[in-house]
Amino acid sequence: MFIFRAVVGTVLKRKFGRLAGLSLLANALTSILIAGAVIYFLYVWEAIQTILEFLIAFSAITAVILFAVKDIWLENVLAGLSMIGEKNIKIGTEVEIKGKTGSITEMTLTVTKIKTKDGGTMIVPNRMFRQDAFVIKPTRKTS
């Protein structure tokens, strides 16, 4: 394959080398010819069937895994993305959720960490901010 690529590349560069600025075209044509040769040899060696079966199996496994985690991960990520654009919810905001009050210390795409009044850290899935009622405490101004 490497010899084939070198020969085809050399021939195309000689043909297009006289024309200014067409070395990119020669490289593109070489790549297309190489891809075609690889596909042809895979077909001749009957490897395409095996590769397609592997890709189908991999796709099925991926679909099952994504379906299994969609409720947990995807819902939290979408809620996290919507929270990023929210002006009222940011780091430092005091909130009350599920009867606990604290200040937001960290926001990721999937969870929000809240420092509670008693010094503990509460990790809240972002979907909780979209599913449950919560209170945003007014910020205190110090004079």
Plain-language structure description:
- The chain has 143 residues and is α+β, with helices and mostly antiparallel strands.
- It has two domains: 2-80, no CATH class; 88-136, Roll (SH3 type barrels).
- The chain is 56% helix and 18% strand.
- It is built from four helices and five strands; from the N terminus they run αααββββαβ.
- It has helices at residues 2-17, 23-44, 47-84, 128-131; strands at 94-97, 100-107, 111-116, 121-125, 134-136.
- It has a five-stranded antiparallel beta sheet with strand order 4-3-2-1-5, with no helix packed on it.
- It is elongated, with a radius of gyration of 29 Å.
- The termini are far apart.
Summarize the structure.
This protein has 4 helices and 5 strands. With 143 residues, it is α+β, with helices and mostly antiparallel strands.
Break the fold down into its secondary structure elements and pairings.
Elements: H1 2-17, H2 23-44, H3 47-84, E1 94-97, E2 100-107, E3 111-116, E4 121-125, H4 128-131, E5 134-136
Antiparallel strand pairs: 1-2, 1-5, 2-3, 3-4
Helix pairs in contact: 1-2
